[in-house]
Design brief:
Elements (H helix, E strand, L loop, with lengths): L3 H7 L17 E5 L5 E2 L2 E4 L9 E3 L5 E2 L9 E3 L5 E5 L12 E9 L6 E8 L4 E8 L5 E5 L7 E4 L9 E8 L4 E6 L2 E7 L11 E5 L4 E10 L2
Antiparallel strand pairs: 1-17, 2-3, 3-4, 5-6, 6-17, 7-16, 8-13, 8-17, 9-10, 9-16, 10-11, 11-12, 13-14, 14-15
Amino acid sequence: MISRLGYFAANKRRGAAGPGGDPFFDNVVFLMGFEDPIIDGFVYVSDQSNQGNDMAFNRADCVRADAAIFGGYGFRRGTLFAQDDIADDGDFSFGSDPFTIEFWMNASASVSSDYAIAKYVISGNQRSWRFEFGVSGPLSLRWSPNGSTQYTLTVVSTIFDGNDHHIAVDRDITGKLRLYVDGNMDASATANTAFFNSSAPFRIEAEDGNLALDEIRITKGV
C-alpha cells in the first residue's frame, strides 16, 4: 500500500503564475481540482498552490466524474460520508486580513443539511468560518470573531437547482464581506472584527450525495 506522504512526495504538481498568468498566485494557499487518481481505496488530492496543503479522502467513491466542472473529476460523497482534515494551519486563519474563497458547486433541491468547507469546531468554542447548507438551501458563510458569537452571510439567489454555480466570498481591507454567485454580488455584510484564530482543522467534507464541489481556491491577503 502506498503511503499518503509517499504519494504526495512523488507526485507534486505545484503551479506558477507564469507569463500572462495570475499575478496573485503567490497569495493562493489552497487550490484543489480533484484530478488525482484513486490508489488503494484512497483518493489522494494534490493542492496545486505552492503551500502543499494536500488531502486524502478515505472512500474511493467520493470522487465522481459527473461532479466535474473542469477536468475529469469533482468531489461528491459516494456511499458513505467523506472528509479529510488539515491540522490547524495559519494558511486558513484570516484574522483581519483580506481574503477570497471560491469554488464551483452543483446541488439539487433535495440536498440535506450539510457543511462542506470549514475551519470550524463547535466543541470548545473553536468556530472560525464555514460554508454551510440548510435543507434544500440556502448556502451561507458563517463566521465568528471570538469562537462562540456567530454571524452569517446568506445567498439570496436560487442555486439548489441541479446546475453548476460559481460561488465566491471576499473581504476587503475595510472589513466589507461580499458574496458572489456566478460573478454577480448576491449579498454583503461588514465584518469589522477579525475572524477568530481557531485551533480547528481545515476540513472539506460531503455528507450528502446531492452536493458536488470542484475547483476550490483560497487566496489570503488579496
